[in-house]
Every structure is written in C-alpha cells, then in structure tokens.
Design brief:
The complex is a heterodimer of chains A (215) and B (10). Helix content of chain A is 70%, strand content 0%. Chain A has 215 residues and is an all-alpha fold. At the A-B interface, helix 1, helix 3 and helix 7 of A face loops of B.
C-alpha cells in the first residue's frame, strides 16, 4: 500500500466523519443530498459482497465495515431521525438518481472482468460511484448558501478521489505495469466531475467569501 | 510484491 492510497482512504474516512459530525452535532443535514448518500450505500453493498469470502487484510475488512456502516447510518439519520429529517432540503434534492442506477447496471452487464454476480456487481458499483456525486453537486448549485461543513465534505470527497488517481499512477509505474481499465476509467471520470466544484471552492477559500456555485 | 488481485483496493 502506497502513501497516496493510505492518504486517500484516510481522507475518505475524514469526509465521512465531517458529515456525521455535522449531522450529529448540528442535528442538521441541510444541503446534503440524500440521493447521493443512498447511492453510496448501494455502491458499498454491491462492492463489498466478498467481504467475508475473500480475505485481503484486516485493514480492508475494517474499512469496508466502516464505509458500509457509516453510509447506512447517514441515510438512516436523514430519513428517520425526527429532528434531522426536518432539515433535509427535500425540495432542492430532486435529481432522478434512479436514472443513474439502470445505465450503470446495463453497462456492467456488458463491461466486466467476468460474467459472474460478484464481478458484474463490482463493475456496477464502480460505475455508480463515478456518478453518485451528481445529485449532491446539483443540490449545491440550487442551495443559496452552502454551509462550510457541507462544502468541506464535498471537497474532501474530491481530494480522496484525486489521491486515488495518484495512487493508480504510482502503481502503474512502480508495481503492476498494466492498466486496470474498469476502476481507472470510472475513477478518472468521477474525479473529473469535481473539477468545477474544486474551482469555485478554492476561489471562495482564497477570496474568503461564501462558497457559491453558478446555477 | 505487486498484487495481481484487482480487488486489493477499497
């Protein structure tokens, strides 16, 4: 495991902690897309099917359990917690995320390493993760004022993906010397979707002004 | 050593 990969996983963990902190301490999920969080639950459940069958390392098992557990916990808070669910931006979170699931599944039926349940769902989870942030980005464009923790959460998600790209560049030259098309192309597209957000986030940080995405 | 396992990442 190289440093980029470790930093990437730690950044991913951090952004989930930031989100849980926001929800638990402020009892608010304003500006957070429930649809994106639900897509992440599907991403983790379909990707970690081999959690108990294929042993990689204790690190993998712990991280997978944390990602599945926290993503389900966040959806639970936003859907069922009596106080938090009142703060959900229901009217702005209108992206039809079901329109993302079917195309990713169909693509996985055609593009996969093996035509088995685990492999098709693994590919599906990679394609879905690539587009899962879209409802959240659309919601940010609609939000008049984005609170700092929400902006930080999305920024850290983007940073985790950039670190994974750097991890793949490192592994290509130093380790595997071959291209893993499915995760790398999906991951590249996923990271590219943050470019616009990164620009406005860094601009708002430099100018010390509120984060605002153009509609 | 370089792991050939394509699922060695999260």
């Amino acid at each position: 495991m190289n440093l980029f990969r470790l930093l990437g996983d730690m950044t991913h963990l951090l952004c989930i902690v930031v989100l849980l902190l926001k929800i638990r301490t402020r009892k608010s999920c304003a500006g957070i897309s429930l649809k994106t969080q639900e897509l992440y639950v599907i991403v983790f459940l379909t990707r970690y099917l081999d959690l108990f069958t294929m042993y990689n390392s204790l690190y993998q098992i712990v991280m997978k359990l944390v990602f599945v557990g926290t993503s389900i916990g966040i959806v639970w808070y936003m859907r069922y917690h009596k106080v938090v669910k009142q703060t959900y931006s229901k009217n702005e979170d209108t992206f039809r995320h079901y329109f993302l699931i079917l195309p990713c599944f169909v693509l996985a039926l055609f593009v996969h390493l093996d035509f088995t349940v685990v492999e098709v769902l693994w590919s599906f989870s990679l394609y879905l993760e690539a587009v899962a942030i879209l409802p959240q980005l659309v919601l940010l464009q609609r939000s008049r004022n984005i609170d700092t923790l929400t902006g930080d959460y999305v920024f850290l998600l983007g940073v985790y993906r950039v670190l994974y790209l750097l991890n793949w560049v490192y592994r290509f030259f130093m380790e595997i010397h071959q291209i893993r098309w499915i995760p790398w192309v999906s991951g590249f597209i996923q990271t590219a979707l943050y470019a616009d957000f990164f620009y406005y986030y860094i601009k708002s940080w430099k100018n010390r002004e509120k984060l605002k995405l153009p509609a | 050593g370089p792991s050939s396992n394509p699922k060695d990442e999260l």
